[in-house]
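Changelog note: in this version the structure field was regenerated for every chain. One regenerated record is shown below for reference.
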Amino acid sequence: MRRANVSSDFVAAIDLGSNSFHMIVARISNGHVQILDRLREMVQLAAGLDRHNRLSAESQQRALDCLARFGQRLRHIPAARLRIVGTNTLRQARNSAEFVARAEQLLGHRVEIVSGQEEARLIYLGVAHSVGDVAGQRLVVDIGGGSTELIIGEQFDPLHLASLRMGCVSLTRACFADGRVTAARLRDAELLVQLNLEPVREEYLVRGLETVTGASGSIKAIQDVIISEGWSREGITLEGLRRLRMALLEVRDSAGVARRWQLEPARARVFVGGFVVLHGLCEALGVARMEVSEGALREGLIYDLLGRIRHEDVRDRTIADVIRRFDLDETQAERVSASALELLRQVRTPWKLAGREARSVLERAARLHEIGLLLTHDQYHKHGAYVLQHSELPGYSRNDQQLLAALVRRHRRSFPADAFADLPRDWARPARRLCALLRLAVVLHRGRSNEPLPAISLRVEGQRMFLSFPPAWLVEHPLTRADLQMEARVLRKAGFELRIGSATLAATPTSSRSSSEPSP
């Protein structure tokens, strides 16, 4: 292998969990994943949330110190081969944007915050690649610091996902904050677990799943304790959990847990919380035995990243599913998408939009720009943005959905200069330019005609856009020219200047369009 290409074979993933931060580095060899390095630190980020759901300065610094150590291992890995995701605590924290900005500056890479459903999907993917295949469906359980994921799947496909807001750190804070374990506290914690399980218990019970797999540090630690006591030879049994409950009442506190089972202090502090979640799940769902997987969220990130590298991006499958579910006009979506991508091809270098991600974002927004029509034509761009912002979209992080929704929101009508101010800083400017291209493509296909467009040339100089058509084509298509005139006026408010050839388009609306609708 040539030294210059060494980094191209490596991929990495970082899981910014509520209890621990994990990083794995892997090498892709002949299509297979070889794990080369694993790092884990129990940062216990969730312990830094105050009653207003704000991360303390101390917890942020603790997390950033960990990431600084991780960062040394990532220096030679390209951004396209690394994923960093935050989970429940960063979903909850009101000041998570502040922490994410500091983390991104420190690492030089983008940090994604994923939804509970997306977290569950990635966990299942990691587990499915780490354990043996089984006939039929399996249940995967992952107990994190702030949430617990329950996923039913078959082979590599998750079929049903739930994310419950309880975890080893959050339950410890609620019931065992000072480390003491009493019978009354155990009962209170067990009741909290049952209350969280109540909305989903029946739908999991009726499936009668025989294969159950656990993942996460809490479940691994519980397995180690049960095996060390001789209560199970392999995996976790319900009988072993019942005996462990009695043993916890004997040790009385987290210090006793650490001494009896030789656990590191950070793990011992949240051990009882994780145990109560797992025991409650197994009792409620009738799980007699659980195998334990080495793979979890970070392994799932690696395999999901591998799919993107191989052009098997789950996000493309998601877009196709959404188009079918909402019965969108695929022909119109393809027209707009093709024209938007052709305009991008012509300006990608001067506008610094040459990356694959920019092309993918524009294509997906173009294919979904009419999703709001399911509700009503009036304000459909706003309805579409809301749907995309708040739907569960497999493969998408919170920022991915925010970007997609923002482009759909601004593909017609008003386009203020600060339209993308709420996006992460590195996407705000590219998003404005991608939106300008999307708007032009929508204008050009407003008539929904099957007549192909002529060869159109787009040249840019900074924020100036020069759009050229063959001679006489606009004369023969006066409605399109009127639409472009109105679009020029709206683009000017966003800081763009649209010209045809060397002449600036007039901004005066024509009689064929109402001034109340300045852009298509």
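Spot check on this record: Residues 458 and 472 are 17 Å apart (CA to CA). The longest strand covers residues 32-41.
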